[in-house]
Design goal:
Layout lengths: L10 H14 L3 H26 L5 H8 L3 H10 L8 H14 L1
């Protein structure tokens, strides 16, 4: 079910929205809905990435919260300049642990 929501917006901003709407062949409401959905999705990704960076959630949970696949979450973090603390020593240690379990 859709609901009507009224918000006040700057007149100049609305003119720019209308201009873009003409270029995109979209009415103002459709364009604003599109912006809101994209903004919401971006906020979800930002929050999930931040919680992951702070060690509050796992990588898998971050991807789930952001609504992304693991690969897309990895790409998002790379695109945002995230640098992992995971080192070659960490990898070697994990490989050795896996070998011991066999």
């Amino acid at each position: 079910m859709n609901e009507i929501v009224a918000i006040r917006m700057d007149t100049d901003f609305l003119r720019r929205i209308d201009h873009l709407g003409q270029e995109e062949v979209m009415d103002r409401s459709t364009l604003l809905r599109k912006f809101m959905v994209r903004g919401y999705q971006e906020i979800l990704k930002e929050r999930a990435a931040q919680d992951y960076k702070e060690g509050k959630i796992t990588f898998s949970e971050a991807a789930h919260r952001a609504g992304l696949t693991l690969w897309d979450m990895e790409q998002y973090l790379v695109d945002k300049g995230f640098k992992s603390d995971y080192s070659l020593d960490d990898l070697e240690e994990e490989i050795n642990l896996l070998r011991k379990k066999k």
